[in-house]
Structures are given as C-alpha cells and as structure tokens.
Specification:
With about 425 residues, the chain is α/β, with parallel strands linked by helices. About 30% of the residues lie in helices and about 20% in strands. The chain is globular and about 75 Å long. Bound molecules: coenzyme A.
C-alpha cells in the first residue's frame, strides 16, 4: 500500500479513533494549540467502559473534563504545568503534578514514563506522506517516536512548519477533522509593564539573541525593542509580538551563533498573524525541547538574553516562580533551563521580572525570607538580574548584604523601610 492507501485504511470517525484506548493506558495529549479537544471529549465520553486511564498534559487550555469527580474511577490527570483550566482539579487531588526541567522531558518520555497513547493535531501531510509537527515539536517528537498507539488529527487550520517531521505511516488511526484554532493574543500592557520593558530593553544590545515567555511583560519588552537591530530568537515558545518586530526589521537572526538566520522554538502560541507567519516559513525551526532548552545548547548562542516572569524573591535572591505560599500555581517550564543557558552564554544575561507587589498592592513581592514550605524555582546561585517596575539589579557575584541592599532598592517604596528593618533584625544588613 502507498501512503495514500494507508491513510484511507487508518481513517476513523472521532468516536472510533478513541476506541484504541484501553483501561490502564497512559494517554498523553499535546499542549496549547495542539490540544485535540474533540478527540479528548470523545475519550471522556467512554468513561463508563474505561478504568484507570491517566491523561498526561503540559500547558493545558482545557476543559479538564477527564479530571471531574463524576469520572474519577475511569480517569485521573497528570500534569507538569497547571493553568486556570486544571488548577482546581489539581487542588481537589484529581490531577498529580510532576516537577521537572522542561528540557529533560524528552528523555523522560522516551525512557522512563513513555505514554501508551499519544493524541496530536497536525496539518495535512506533504506529497510524500510526511507530516509537519505544526505548532508543537516540544515533547511531541519523543512521544510519536516511542508511544505504542498514535492518534493523529489532520487539521488544515494548523500551519505547516519546518524543523521536525514524521511519516504518517506511524499513525495507528487518523481523524480527518478541520477545527478552528483557539487564538491567544499577547495581551495589552499598562504603565507598570511599560516601565519594566524599558529597564529590560536597556540591557539588550543590537545583535543579542532573545528568549521571552508570553504575557504582558514580554509584550512590553518587545514593544521597547523597536529601535534595536539584528536581534535573534532562540526560545521555548514565541507569539505575535515577535512577528511584529520581524516585520519592523528589528529581528533578522543574522548575528546568531547557533542556528544562524533561523527562529528557533519548540512550540508556538498566538493568533492568525503568527500562524500565517510560520506557515511554510523556512526560517522558522520548530525542534524538540531538548534541542531548544538544554542549557548547553542555549549557551551556544553568544549574547543570549532570557526574560521570564516570577512571583516572589527573598533578600538572598531565591526566586519563586511557579507556586504561591508553597501551593503549586503553574510549573517551572523552561525557566531554569534558560536562566542557566543564558548565564553560561558569552555575553549572556538572564532576567527575571515581577511586579513589586501582589494582592492589589497589599503585599511586597520582595520578602526578607520566603514563607515556610515555599517552593524555590531558581536558586540564589543561579539568579542574575531581577527586575520590577522600580528598576533592575544584577545579583550575580554579590554578597548577601549587597543582595539585600539591591533588592530593597527595587522594592515598592511603601515596603522599603519595613524590609530594611527586617533585614537588620535578621543580621543581613
Ligand atoms: N501571594 C499571593 N498571591 C500572589 C503572590 C503572593 N506572594 N504573588 C503573586 N500572586 C498572585 C497574583 O496577584 C495573581 O493573582 P490574580 O491573577 O488573582 O491577580 C497571580 O498570583 C499570578 O500573578 P501574575 O503576576 O499575574 O503572574 P502571571 O499570570 O503573569 O504568571 C508566572 C506568572 C510566574 C506564574 C508564570 O510566568 C510562570 O508560570 N512562570 C514559570 C514558567 C516559565 O517561566 N516558563 C518559561 C517561559 S515560557
């Protein structure tokens, strides 16, 4: 059979495709735009006939119906990253959380926790039956390689990207289903984010290579970079703001020392503007997360600048980014991968950014000591730049006393005196 005949042979309805899932299976789904919602819904509808199926996910947009109390005998959840879509189910004990550096996930899924079933969405194959990974190479390449059963949804709404590909003959079953993609705009930003963006932009030089997460601060940073030249992108994910800077001639990738001339990422999140930009674009390389996020490979980019969000920092420079008061909030993702990779790069910088206060200005995000039970994301030995709307400081190579002084200088003015007194009583100043 040629690949077109195999395609026809494997074609199923959504309801028939999910019949390959058996009780006891570990089923991994793709994250973000790759989430095949209709197939997942059909799987949850099989709850009466299934037992002990684990649904594994990363950044999940939901709904997390599989983790509902009504289907608890049939399904349980497992995740490396919590969001508004599944945090409640985690707190209710129906989703287990797995901490791990993002770049280590490839070996983890290949060697240690290989899913039985992988569910993915891709654009239509090329004339040779080869499939692009669309918007998700991340851990998807490892799962396609190692899973026992592969459910592929062919969705023409997914753009065709380069960098990673697989033969459609790997599919166990195929679902032909066009569905619109959820669009995720970057989000507006206010005066606070604008100030942070300007402090960070002042540290970015022409020719630097950037990693930015998504959200209001990365957008504000991108907006502040419009007068730079020859910037490059080596990141975990990118979104619409990067397209705007490319169109403005600011991003050329020409000065990159690793994958020169290419945008490098492992997944993508954005709107139609981004999907159109990456579709059949030979300058965009979508490659697995161990190739984008391994700190050594990141450091092959000279002048690598990583910019990520955090939630709380103590006066020693210990950073909490993915939990609040010891309770899991999101996940470490690739934050530490890039903090370490950027710091190791020639001329590199890692920048962590947060608002100076939380809870509507009632508490300081810079604290003398972290609350008992806090989960540290970035250690005091790894940390480099910390930015708030009151400035940016470099903690690397600084003593405990200097760190406390520097961090108090970028705390909200209403909390500086109190922080100074607390630091003195702890013997830090
Ligand atoms: N006590 C209580 N609540 C706190 C708090 C504290 N000390 N600090 C923050 N919060 C609250 C905020 O008020 C906010 O609540 P709200 O939504 O009800 O206003 C919430 O926690 C989230 O804070 P916010 O500043 O809005 O963060 P965010 O939504 O922009 O997300 C991270 C920031 C840090 C959670 C997110 O970037 C992340 O998960 N980072 C780790 C992963 C990563 O960086 N990966 C690499 C790049 S993709």
């Amino acid at each position: 059979m040629n690949w077109r005949e195999k395609y026809q042979d494997k074609l199923r309805s959504v309801e028939d495709a999910v019949k390959i899932v058996e009780s006891g299976d570990k089923v991994m789904i793709q994250q973000a735009h790759g989430e095949a919602k209709t197939i997942l819904r059909a799987l949850v509808d099989r709850a009466p006939e299934l037992r002990d199926v684990t649904i594994m996910s990363h950044l999940h947009w939901g709904p997390a119906d599989y983790a509902g109390p009504d289907v608890a005998d049939s399904f349980k959840g497992w995740s490396c990253f919590l969001s508004n879509s599944n945090r409640k189910e985690y707190e209710a004990g129906r989703i287990d959380f797995q901490p791990m550096f993002f770049y280590e996930m490839v070996d983890f899924y290949k060697e240690i926790n290989t899913p039985d079933v992988f569910i993915m969405q891709v654009p239509p194959p090329d004339e040779n039956g080869m499939c692009s990974y669309g918007l998700n190479a991340d851990y998807s390449v490892a799962c396609v390689e190692k899973c026992k059963k592969l459910i592929v949804q062919i969705n023409p709404a997914i753009p065709f990207t380069y960098g990673s590909a697989f033969s459609l003959s790997k599919a166990t079953v195929i679902v032909d289903l066009e569905e619109p993609l959820v669009e995720v705009p970057g989000g507006d930003f206010g005066e606070t984010e604008r100030k942070m963006g300007e402090y960070i932009a002042a540290l970015v030089n022409d020719g630097d290579t950037l990693q930015l997460g998504i959200g209001s601060v990365p957008n504000a940073v991108l907006a502040a970079l419009k007068d730079k030249k020859d910037l490059g992108i080596h990141t975990e994910l990118f979104s619409d703001g990067v397209v705007d800077l490319y169109n403005a001639g600011v991003i050329t990738n020409a000065k990159k020392t690793h994958h020169t001339g290419k945008f490098v990422s492992n997944f993508l999140m954005g709107t139609k503007k981004l999907f159109d930009f990456v579709d059949h674009n030979p300058d965009v390389l979508l490659i697995p997360v161990d190739q984008t996020n391994d700190p050594y490979l990141i450091s092959l980019n000279d002048n690598m600048v990583s910019i990520n969000a955090c939630l709380q920092v103590d006066l020693l420079g210990q950073v909490v980014s993915d939990s609040i008061n010891g309770k899991q909030y999101s996940g470490p993702g690739g934050q530490v991968d890039f903090v370490r990779g950027a710091k190791r790069s020639n001329g590199g910088k890692s920048i962590l950014v947060m608002k100076s206060t939380a809870k509507k200005g009632t508490i300081s995000s810079i604290v003398p000591q972290l609350p008992q039970g806090s989960i540290i994301t970035v250690s005091r030995n790894d940390v480099q730049y910390i930015c708030t709307e009151y400035g940016i400081v470099n903690l690397f190579g600084k003593t405990n006393r200097e760190r406390a002084q520097l961090l108090i200088s970028i705390a909200h003015p209403d909390f500086r005196e109190e922080l100074t007194q607390q630091a003195k009583s702890l013997g830090m100043l």
